[in-house]
Design brief:
single chain; 154 residues; alpha+beta; CBS-domain; three-stranded mixed sheet; two-stranded antiparallel sheet; elongated
C-alpha cells in the first residue's frame, strides 16, 4: 500500500531581492557650503569651526561651481610665508578647484567605492539631476559596509 503525503501543495516563494544601498542613502545632507566671494580667512575659520577639511563652492542659485579644501588653502599659506607677507584676503575663486569630480545620487555604494579607489579624492559632491544634494566621503562608504549584513551584500 503506497504512503500518501499530507503536506499539501508546495508554495513557490519568490526570492526577495534586498535593496542595494545607494549613495543617496548614506550621503551627508547638511553641508557647509562656500561661495566664490568668501575670503580664504572665512573658509579656514569654517574648517576649524565645523571640523571639516573641505566643501563645495556654489553660486547664488545653489549650483556647484567648485570645491575648496585644506590643500587649496595651503597654497596661500605657503605663498605668504615664501614672500614674507601676511595671508591675504583673496577670495575662494582664486584657490578653489573648478573641475569637480561628482557622483550621481543613484549610484550604488559599490560604484562609489570603485570611484574612490580610482582617484585620490576623499569626498565627492553628490548630484541629482545636476543639483547639489549632498556629499559622500570614503568614511561614509566604510561605515555603510561595516553595518551591512551578509544578506544585503549586493
Amino acid at each position: 500500500m503506497p504512503i500518501k503525503s499530507f503536506q499539501g501543495e508546495r508554495v513557490i516563494r519568490s526570492k526577495k531581492r534586498t535593496k542595494t544601498l545607494l549613495v543617496s542613502d548614506i550621503m551627508s545632507h547638511d553641508l557647509v557650503v562656500f561661495t566664490k566671494e568668501q575670503t580664504i580667512h572665512e573658509v579656514m575659520k569654517k574648517f576649524i569651526k565645523y571640523r571639516i577639511s573641505g566643501g563645495p563652492v556654489v553660486d547664488d542659485f545653489g549650483k556647484l561651481v567648485g570645491v575648496i579644501s585644506e590643500a587649496d588653502c595651503m597654497k596661500e599659506i605657503s605663498d605668504s610665508r615664501y614672500f614674507n607677507l601676511p595671508i591675504l584676503d583673496k577670495s575662494v575663486a582664486h584657490f578653489m578647484t573648478s573641475k569637480v569630480d561628482t557622483i550621481d545620487a543613484n549610484k550604488t555604494i559599490f560604484e562609489a567605492a570603485s570611484m574612490f579607489f580610482k582617484t585620490t579624492r576623499r569626498r565627492f559632491p553628490v548630484l541629482d539631476k545636476n543639483r547639489l544634494v549632498g556629499q559622500i566621503s570614503r568614511k561614509d562608504i566604510v561605515v555603510a559596509t561595516i553595518n551591512m549584513k551578509s544578506q544585503t551584500w549586493r
